[in-house]
Design a protein that fits this description.
Helix content is 77%, strand content 0%. By secondary structure, the chain is mainly α. The chain folds into 2 domains: 365 residues, Growth Hormone, Chain: A (Up-down Bundle), CATH 1.20.1250; 55 residues, no CATH class. α1 runs antiparallel to α8, α4 runs antiparallel to α20 and α5 runs antiparallel to α20. The longest helix has 39 residues.
């Protein structure tokens, strides 16, 4: 049990950094003089660094041992977190967020593999359920604490409060995690695969984040990034299928349940983080909701997750994972339907209900995805498999968040141009504006009209992206149907 608690605490470190910073983005934006798309890099840089570094978990654990990796990972995470809180510019904060993720992200699959290997097949489902529930507890509370601290003290303290948790995790690893047995051979890093994958992902992320502001393929920068993505993506794929020990072994995808689980995790990644990023932005941008209130709403989402995970513990060995997936993603679809109706007059009670129900769906998905992915998997390659699982989920999250902001900004501009044409001196609509209290002639009155049009156009942008969320949730149902269950047991994947 102490081992399980320690692994949970180690994984909690990185999981908390995703949720705790979201509610403070507007304050960070103001303090560091950034635009909304620039401050989004505080989240996306963390996710993209995770995507690049999380596959290193398999190599570093084989090269240095899991206990040593956890010790250095926790220590490096603590230092980077301290520097995040001391940052004086947006670029500096983004840099340390990348370092923070580089040290913290491999901890997740390594700790998860320790839990998986420490328990027999009969006890594994319940252990994973307890592990995932524990991992969800602190990220549940973190947004409320982060919102309160941001509002009452400073956004910097959302990073400082993580350092005591890192100290406890470090002590736990020292005391309760056993060192791996010595290996006769030390694993080598596939630098070609690592660098080509890193550049490939970076090029795509830069395209998504800068494409809208740069005019997409009318910009030389975007063209260079597109060409870079094609070239280095091709290098990575061809090298992965021909190298003896590739950075990410794509041959693992030959196992049916594994590849289906990876695809499902990609859809899950798209749906998991997006509401935690978009909902605070919408409420604070359109309703000027305080940080603590936003943190409370995200916290309610986490409570929904915790309730679901408690139920999962009770049914872990009884329910078919496919049934749990259908329930979890079905709840996401319902949440998408609800969010697609949100206007500027949406009540906080409606937002709370939707966030709670979406969190409830999240709680039903961690366990069945893990069980499906490892169902026919070589236990010796569990760290590689879990690294690929978290890699795909992180990449999907990062790309999808960027794509969501593209939808918001692009449709905002389109709708603003359409709405503003309806307000001109030659129509009677200005009389309606005057009746609403804006007047119709004074510059200040017209500025009020323009501001309201901007708000309405932005609201339409958020409604469009919630429709995207809804349709994305439906992609997973055919994949769930194709899962082979019960599993056949371990099959050699190489």
């Amino acid at each position: 049990m102490l081992l399980l608690i320690t692994c949970t605490l180690v994984t909690t470190l990185y999981a908390t950094t995703i949720t705790i910073a979201n509610v403070s983005l507007p304050q960070i934006q103001g303090a560091l003089s950034a635009s909304p798309d620039q401050v989004a890099w505080v989240v996306t840089s963390n996710l993209i660094a995770t995507a690049v570094t999380i596959p290193l978990a398999g190599w570093v654990s084989a090269r240095f041992g899991r206990r040593r990796c956890m010790l250095w990972g926790v220590l490096g995470f603590a230092v980077a977190t301290l520097m995040c809180g001391l940052s004086t510019s947006l670029s500096e904060l983004i840099f340390w967020r990348v370092v923070q993720s580089a040290f913290g992200s491999p901890l997740t699959p390594i700790a998860q593999s320790v839990v998986i290997d420490a328990f027999s097949a009969e006890k594994r489902a319940k252990a994973i359920s307890i592990f995932t529930m524990g991992v969800g507890v602190v990220p549940t509370i973190a947004p409320m604490i982060g919102g309160y601290i941001s509002e009452e003290i400073s956004w910097r303290w959302i990073f400082f409060i993580l350092i005591p948790i890192a100290v406890m995790a470090f002590v736990g690893v020292l005391m309760f995690i056993k060192a791996d047995p010595p290996r006769s051979q030390r694993a080598k890093l596939d630098w070609t695969g690592f660098l080509s994958l890193s550049i490939f992902i970076a090029c795509i992320q830069l395209m998504l984040d800068r494409g809208e502001s740069q005019g997409w393929f009318g910009s030389f920068e975007i063209m260079v990034e597109a060409v870079g993505a094609i070239i280095f993506g091709w290098i990575f794929i061809t090298h992965s299928f021909t190298a003896e020990r590739p950075f990410i072994d794509l041959r693992l995808l030959r196992e049916r349940n594994f590849v289906l689980g990876i695809c499902i995790s990609a859809v899950f990644g798209m749906l998991f983080v997006t509401p935690m990023v978009l909902m605070p932005a919408m409420l604070q941008q359109l309703r000027d909701v305080p940080e603590f209130t936003v943190g409370f709403l995200i916290g309610i989402r986490g409570f929904g997750t915790a309730i679901a995970q408690i139920l999962v513990i009770l049914v872990a060995n009884k329910w078919d994972p496919r049934l749990m997936m259908l329930l979890g993603f079905g709840v996401h679809t319902y949440a998408g339907i609800e969010m697609s109706t949100f206007g500027m007059d949406v009540s906080l009670a409606d937002v709370s209900w939707t966030m709670a129900i979406q969190g409830f769906g999240v709680g039903f998905l961690w366990l069945p995805m893990t069980l499906v992915i490892v169902s026919n998997f070589d236990p010796k390659r569990t760290p590689e498999g879990m690294a690929m699982f978290h890699f795909v989920r992180s990449v999907a999250s990062s790309f999808y968040i960027s794509a969501s902001f593209i939808v918001i900004f692009h449709t905002q501009k389109m709708n603003y141009s359409e709405l503003v044409q309806m307000i001109n001196p030659y129509t009677d609509r200005l009389d309606l504006a005057a009746a609403a209290g804006w007047g119709g002639e004074l510059p200040s009155s017209m500025a009020g009209v323009a501001g309201e049009i901007t708000r309405q156009a932005t609201n339409i942008g958020y409604i469009n992206v919630y429709h995207l969320f809804l349709w994305t949730s439906m992609l997973v149902y055919p994949l769930i149907i194709m899962i082979a269950w019960p599993p056949k047991g371990f099959q050699q994947n190489r």
